[in-house]
């Protein structure tokens, strides 16, 4: 019988490999062995894709939201989240402002560098009072299909890439504050 070369790799290498997968697929590797069970919770890149999740799990959209929440809560609070990507394409996808802001705030507290949020054009989700606008470590910010509202302070000293597509600002001054910050 051949040796399992992949399982002999250090945890850091395995986590790096898992970081290229949507997080629900990385989570599925936990059934491989006891050694693999905690690895997906140490991945520094969280990539949530509703289409991939819903196709592979045949579950309703609210299960996707619960999966995101449980993934963030289950992680060790001291482990960094370098990249947080949320891609939602389902037109029936319901995402509350509270959920989105809670997830983003949790990620910004853990050294977030790269944030991508892509919601359907029909989304009414609003990014409110999020710490993302004062995240000192954020380098890339890409927002699509949401509204940005109510922020009092913008300070993004490390930001190198800002991409806004179909993003609504209820007041023009909000966009100006974001660009100046």
TrEMBL record:
It comes from the Eukaryota. Pfam families: F-box. Residues 6-43 form the F-box domain. InterPro entries: F-box-like_dom_sf, F-box_AtFBL13-like, F-box_dom, FBL60-like. This is F-box domain-containing protein.
């Amino acid at each position: 019988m051949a040796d399992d070369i992949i399982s002999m790799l250090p945890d850091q290498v395995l986590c790096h490999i898992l970081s290229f997968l949507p997080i629900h697929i990385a989570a599925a590797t936990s059934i491989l062995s006891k050694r693999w069970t905690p690895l997906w919770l140490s991945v520094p890149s969280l990539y949530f894709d509703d289409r991939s999740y819903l196709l592979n799990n045949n579950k309703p959209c609210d299960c996707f939201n619960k999966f995101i929440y449980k993934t963030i809560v289950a992680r060790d609070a001291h482990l960094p989240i370098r990249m947080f990507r949320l891609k939602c394409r389902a037109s029936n996808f319901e995402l509350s402002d509270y959920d989105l802001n809670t997830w983003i705030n949790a990620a910004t507290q853990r050294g977030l560098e790269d944030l991508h949020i892509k919601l359907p054009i029909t989304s009414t989700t609003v990014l409110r009072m999020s710490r993302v606008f004062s995240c000192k470590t954020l380098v890339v910010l890409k927002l699509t299909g949401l509204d940005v509202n109510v922020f009092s302070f913008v300070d993004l000293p490390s930001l190198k890439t800002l991409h806004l597509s179909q993003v609504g600002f209820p007041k023009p001054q909000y966009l100006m504050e974001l660009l100046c910050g």
